[in-house]
Each structure stands twice: as C-alpha cells, then as structure tokens.
Design brief:
Layout lengths: L7 E6 H5 L6 E4 L6 H11 L8 E7 L13 H12 L3 H11 L4 H7 E4 L3 H12 L7 H4 L4 H11 L1 E4 L2 E4 L1
Antiparallel strand pairs: 1-2, 1-3, 4-6, 5-6
Amino acid sequence: MEHITTPAIYVGTWHKYNAGSLYGQWFDLTEFDDKDDFYAACYALHAGEADPELMFQDIEGIPGQFASESSISWSFIDAWKQAFEDGNAAAFVAWSGYTGRCDYDAFENAYCGEAESEEAFATGQLEDSGVLNEIPEALRGYFDYEAWARDLFLNEYDLVDGYVFSH
C-alpha cells in the first residue's frame, strides 16, 4: 500500500505572524466531524487573542485549489474521508487535483484503476475484452498497441499519477 498523506493544516493567526511568531498547531482534518468542530478547535488554540484571525500557514494532503491561507473546502475533506474508507484516498487526491472537483460520486464513476502507463492499461483492456482472440495468432503481432493507447487516452481516459480516469 502506498503512503497516503492525511489532509492536515498548520493553524496560526495573522496577528502572531505579523508580530514575528509562528505559534500554532497542526490539525489532522479527518479528526473533525465537520467544519464547525475544526474552527472551534482553532479558536480554542488561539483563545488568548481577543478576535483571532486564523492563518493556515502550511497544508498537507490537499490539492492547492481546495485550501489557502484563509480557507479550506470542507467538501474535499468529507469526500477524502469517504475515499479513505473505500481504500481510494490517493486516487481521489490525484483525480480531484487534476479535475478541480471534489464530488466523490463523480470520482467513483470516473475511476478505472491503476496503470503503469497508457499502453499498459490499453493492452490490459484489449486482453480482458477478448477482441484479440478474434484475430488469427499470426496477425496479432502487427497490432499497434502504442497507437491504440494513444487514441484511447485522447478520447476516453486520463492517466494521472498512475491512476486511470474516464472523461
């Protein structure tokens, strides 16, 4: 099993940062039931400030379009949790980063598995389909797997970080 980076964020405040302090704490975002629980923990950490303006100083395991210094897409976190439960967290992160979407149902519909290359995936598809069995053995060596893979990935699939997704 490959290493999966759990969505996490280092939370400080703008006031502390502007005063030269990086004081804050890492939070594993999967440990919170929802956004409100997360923000409650952040404000509790910085309770010493009258009105803390939170600053997300470092981010791990979240594609850039879903988090910034001042916001987190909680729909990404919810979908990541579901992907993790299903054993597809790394593929989901690759897909969401590539597509800019965080809809788990759309991910499930698009996810086709893992492949080392476009040609390896296309060859596996051909072998599984049995189409080549209809071609005489002596002619199978003339089949252009590279061209087949190129066309398949131009029209139907994307290979992202070793994961295959349909368009």
